[in-house]
Structures are given as structure tokens and as C-alpha cells.
Amino acid sequence: MLNFSKCGLAALFAATAMPAFAADIYEPVPEPTPPQVVYQEVSTGGWYLRGDLDYHWSKFRGGDYITYGGAVPIPGTNSFDFGKLKGAMSLGAGVGYQVNNYFRTDLTADYWFKSDFNGQTSDLVTVSTDTSSYSALLLLANAYVDLGTYNRITPYVGAGIGGARVKWDDLRNQFPGVDDRHKGVASWRFAYALMAGASYCLTKNLHFDAGYRFTRIDGGRMFEYADSSAGGPGAGPGFDRGFNVHEVRGGLRYQFGAGKAECGEPEMVAYEPPAVEPVYK
């Protein structure tokens, strides 16, 4: 009986001491998992200025003029047999905004220096030569898509819409015994353009731009009526049907602000999301 009591007391002591002993055992705090580092692209937006130099070739799309004939002058319509325009230089400038690494817009103004015109008109009796020249001020609002940067080179495509003030010099119309002069006309016309090219990163703020631009200019008044030097009414007024202009362009763009940190792929920076505190239950 005594032995049974001693064994019972020992068991009861062990049972009551176990929780207290277990509570004294150290439980390590779990280490929080470090957040995964992700990368985000840095925008290179900002204002820029540009300056351009080009050489362009204009295609004369045809012309028409009023003619008079008979004892009582009756107007009719005739057309140039052909007309050709020589190439010329131009200078341009603009201001734009780089929205992000892939899209930008700008406003540009280009002055096209004089392109010499040589044409021919004829009827059943005579063939005449016609000479003049035209210059233009081209104003465009443009948008471009930059197609990524590869070894400092960024190809792009773009389009523009606006207007052109075309100024014709006096037209000289000559055939045997006749030397007429028609006063040239200046007028505003609708214009649009399509572009493609590439820019080369010289520094993080300065880029060299080279490309091609096709410009279409609507038709308009070309010259006025003139009295014939041979007596009687001469032809006029005249109208051109517009131009298709092909341009080879080169220039510089200077972007204000930070620009790109590197002349290469768009800059990527590490971004660490905020750490999440572990929850213990």
C-alpha cells in the first residue's frame, strides 16, 4: 500500500511538472522571407528642341490655265504639257515633348528654298516655254513611335498634318514674238507628311536624327492673268495641282532634363516592394 502511494505521488508530480518544463523550452522566431526584387523601366519624358537641314525633290503634279481666243475672247481651259522642278535645300526647327520611351510629338516649321520650274504649253500653232520657281513655308504637327534602342540607335516612324504657304515667282511664258509675264501668287494649302528614320544617341541629352519624309501639298493658284506683249489678252490665271515632295533630312534634337542615363536600352532600376510583417497566431 505504501509503495502504491509513493508511485502515485511520483506520477502526479511528473504530470504537473511537464507543462512548466515545456513552457521553458525556447521557440525560435521564424525569419521573414526577403521581398523579391523586381525591375521597372524609368521614363525619359521631357521637352526638346530640334533643328534640321534637308534636300528635297518636288514632283509637279500638273497645272491648268485659262485661255482666250476668237474675235470675242471666250475663256477655255488648257493644261501644261509638262512641268519639272529642280531639287532645293531647306532649313527647319521645332519644339517637342518626349512622352515616354516610345512616343513623342512635336511642332515643326520648315522653309523650303526656291525650286526652279521649267514647263511647256502648246496649241495647234505654237509651243511655248514657261519658267518660274516656288518656295514654301511648311508647318506641321507631328507624332512619332520610337521602336526601341539598339546599340545607341533608335528607329522610328511618324506622321504629320498641317499646312504650307506656297509662293510662286512670276511666270515667264515665251514663244516666237511673245514674251509674257504673269504675276506669281502666294497661297496657303493643306499638307500632310509621312516619316521614317533613326536617331543616334550622342549623349543622354543630345541625339542626331536622320530620315526620310514624304510630303503631299494640295493644289492652288499659281499665277495671274497677263496682257500679251503681242497685243490682245493673254492666258491666265493658272493653277497648279499640287506637289509630291521627297526629303532626305538630318538634324539634332536636344532634350531638357535628365534625359537617358545611358545611351542604350531604356534604363531599368530595382524596385523593392514594402516588406510584409509575419503574422503569429
UniProtKB/TrEMBL annotation:
<protein>
    <submittedName>
        <fullName>Porin family protein</fullName>
    </submittedName>
</protein>
<dbReference type="InterPro" id="IPR027385">
    <property type="entry name" value="Beta-barrel_OMP"/>
</dbReference>
<keyword id="KW-0732">Signal</keyword>
<dbReference type="InterPro" id="IPR011250">
    <property type="entry name" value="OMP/PagP_B-barrel"/>
</dbReference>
<feature type="domain" description="Outer membrane protein beta-barrel">
    <location>
        <begin position="10"/>
        <end position="256"/>
    </location>
</feature>
<feature type="signal peptide">
    <location>
        <begin position="1"/>
        <end position="22"/>
    </location>
</feature>
<dbReference type="Pfam" id="PF13505">
    <property type="entry name" value="OMP_b-brl"/>
</dbReference>
